[in-house]
Amino acid sequence: MAVYYYAKKIRQSSISGNVIIPPVSSSSAPSKTNSTPSALSAVPSVIAKSLPQTPKSPGSMGIEGSTSSSSSETVDDSGSEPDNSLVFQDNNLVSGPLDALLQHLVPTAEYYPDRTYIFAFLLSSRLYIKPHALLAQVVRLCMLQQNLADQKLTKDKLGRFCPHMVQLLSEWMETFPYDFRDERVMQHVRQLTQRCVALDPSLRRDVSQMLHNLLHRLTALEKYEEFLEKINTEASAALIDTVNVCDVTEVCSSPLILSQQLTHIELERLSFIGPEEFVQAFAKENPNVETSFKDMKKTRNLESYIQWFNRLSYFVATQVCSNVKKKQRVKVIEYWIEVARECFNIGNFNSLMAIIAGLNMSPVSRLKKTWHKVQSAKFSILEHQMDPSSNFSSYRSTLKAAMWRSAGAKDERQRIVVPFFSLLVKDLYFLNEGCANRLPNGHINFEKFWQLAKQVTEFMTWKQVTCPFEKHPKVIHYLQTGTILSENGIALSSFDCEPPENSHEKERFKALKLAAIHA
């Protein structure tokens, strides 16, 4: 079991420092609320309001900030030429070489990097250096600057360095826990924490709690991935070409309750997507990214979430086309329109868009006689809200309103924002392109790092919301594993509902029947 694997690895990190890791509970993984990173509770609001900014490290403290928006200054953190220095504008970090940016991350006795900088750098630096190599560089710099290898070194000589170093590791684990599935990363954690605890025994409890929290997060992740594998296996077995479908209204007659159960699914799946997955997904597809990502964590949670959207769309189309009687098809379409409307009211835009996509699939949209009987005014309003024209301008305005409502809400129901995920991924993809491209002088464009961090932080705020609605496990299980027809199966069922009307449809129907015979 993964629980014992991670427990063993994390316990190894504490052997020399006599750090005690509390035993892992045999019960299910901690809830999303209980495991919410403390650092994240501060990062979203800070980043959203004050990006970009970061304090200058000790090497830059003697330089005065400029007041002109067009002026800039270079800060040499490494003692090398200006081209190897950090560049600030209006006291905001805008660019620098990787080595100088990495140096800016490393704490000292007097200096600790701003949380917004830590998040932005750890998020996007993986486009240039893998997490295990980054932590190795941090360890190397700490050893050199603080002379940690000196056996005569004392706590008094180091000042606040050890608490600062443990704090940096803690924030890294809280915001990017999946990085620590890599044994190479854990080797560096072991090296640093054991040395810090040996020098400052008062840190033993903090290190124990830090590793305990990490163990719970990695255990929860492993359990979730096992759950996904099981669900996906059941869902694959339920993919068929012939009609044998249970009507969703028999499982859940209330559109409101169904929309709430969809929101449960959305928020659970969102909660397990690591912020770094957006960067890794981009890196795998971009040939210009400098590092190889073959050994990085597969972005299965992000990909599974996108697959969930597709499944829901096919589920909706299946529910409509599996009813031979027109009256029942009309009822099912109107049911899903009501579900979509309730999703809109909740702020669940991903399920809303998936339902709209399902009702707009060709096998469903071609059922003209059916749609003629549907009270479709509500559907037209929803389609307008999610209209893709002008880069989804209507949806983006609605999303801003939902974010404003969420920011000031005390009721958990008002805090829910589930974005249209495919569009979010597209937006982040373009921001990643900016992060991956160096400036003409070879510097990394940290302004792009800030932009990506701000948008990803909004996502992190959304995914931390706990779904307040009553849970109906049978409905949730049905939505995730219930029978769906294949693409050809939906098309054939559509023609069974309403015969082909033109030569193109007749040819399509003929080809589908032929394919079904030879299947």
UniProtKB/TrEMBL annotation:
Gene Ontology BP terms: Ras protein signal transduction
PROSITE patterns recorded: RASGEF, RASGEF_CAT, RASGEF_NTER
Protein name: Ras-GEF domain-containing family member 1B-B
Biased composition range(s): Low complexity: 64-73
UniProt organism field: Daphnia magna
Molecular-function GO terms, alphabetical: guanyl-nucleotide exchange factor activity
GO cellular component: plasma membrane
Chain segments carrying region Disordered: 50-83
